[in-house]
Every structure is written in C-alpha cells, then in structure tokens.
C-alpha cells in the first residue's frame, strides 16, 4: 500500500520556517509510517531580512503544495508561518493561508473555519484576520452554527470520547447581561444555539467569555466556539503556545500549521522551538483516514 505523504512548506524563508522544519524532521517525534516532502526554495535567504523575493518564494510554496495535493502526491499540507504584510506587498490577495486554500479549493470564505487544537484546548473562531469592528459585524446565526458543527466533527476525529460537548462563547461582557451590554447574544447567539439544540447537537451557551476557557480547562467542555480571533487566541496561546496547532475546517484537504509567526528576531540563530510544528505534523497525520494510511 502506498505510504501517505505530508507536504510541509517552509513559509517565509527569511523567518524561522526553514529551521523549525529541519528540526522537526530530525526530531524522531513525528510518525514514521508517513513520508514527508519539504516544499519551498532550495536557495537560502538572509535570515531576518524580508524581501519581495522571499515573499514570492513563500507564495510559490503554497501554490506548489496545493498542486501536489490536487495530483494526490501529498495527502495533507502543513504550512510554516508566512509574513502576511510581506506577501501583501507583492499582491497576495488573501488575508492568510486559510483563505488561500479556501480560494484554491473553490470553497467560499464564509464556509471555512479557522480552528486551534492542543491537548488542553480545542476551539473554532467566528472570524480570522479582520478588524474587531469587522469581526463583530460578520457574526451571523449561520456562522455560529457552521463553526459549532465543524468543531464537533473535528473533535470526533481526534478524541476517543462518545459524549462530546462544546460551549459557545458570548461576545459581550457577561453575555450582554440581558441586553444591557449588547444585544448580539439575544438577537444572534441564542437563536443559533436553539437551532443547534433542535438538531440534538451537544452545545451549551452562550457562556460568558470571561469564564468559558477556564471551564474548558477544567474539563466541563471539550471545545469552545470563540466569537472572534483574539477572544480565542489569547487564552489558547497562554496555555498551549508550544503545543498549539492551527487547523482549517471546512476544506476538502487537510491543512495544519503551527500557532506562531515567523519570528524574524531569532531567525538564523538556532533558537527556534519546533514543538508547535511537530504538533501540527502529528495532527495532520492523525487526520488522514486510516484506510489511506495503511
């Protein structure tokens, strides 16, 4: 049987991507029943110094990774960090890698969910890399339902547990305190949650955002739907920085990534920690259906 292959991009080559990829492959901590293909420039770039050519190399690696997946030469994609602003300077038209793969796969942006996974917390986000104003405006009943359903489907793949339950975090302090601090919970969140419950899905909420992550850590919930990027990422990185993984839900392909950036300040100094990338590789391997993996 064919050995499944994981494609690993180098990301921004002037950052720590090349270093953490090399360290991960030498770590003896990644599954041995898979092959690994590094995708990115063979030429070396000056560490810590962004350029249009380094941005172009990062973009080209993403394009190559998707083409390899389309041709079934790789079964999952693990992406190293990119420098978004450097890519924007050369015309990269996507807010991030999540949206790049959504566009390539022909999936509307509003049907793709960014999620974060670690042994301590699993969460999905109602928005990604937009302003807080835009994030709040973009919250809809359908988005809450999609983020909940996809998170539950993801949890079923990674947890050996039959009675999963997730929380849906509110947006406003104290979930709006009956409408006194905002009406989004009453107008959008509660109707979405009621519809999910009518489908007999194990969702709870809205739960006050100042307590929901503590309850996840205590084991009350298996995951949480966060209302916007930083609501979820601040507590996630606080407890899972070295083990956290970014995973895109709603795509026809498996795509994971470490939960940190390009770290230009330590690039080329042999200081980069590969643990988050190792976790991303392990998760990608885990998500490949067993019948494909032998």
From TrEMBL:
It comes from the Bacteria. Transmembrane segments: none annotated. The keyword Cytoplasm does not apply. Keywords: Metal-binding, NAD, Oxidoreductase. GO terms for molecular function: metal ion binding; NAD binding; oxidoreductase activity. The keyword Oxidoreductase applies. Pfam families: PdxA (PF04166). InterPro entries: PdxA_fam. This is Pyridoxal phosphate biosynthesis protein. The lineage of its organism: Bacteria, Pseudomonadati, Verrucomicrobiota, Methylacidiphilae, Methylacidiphilales.
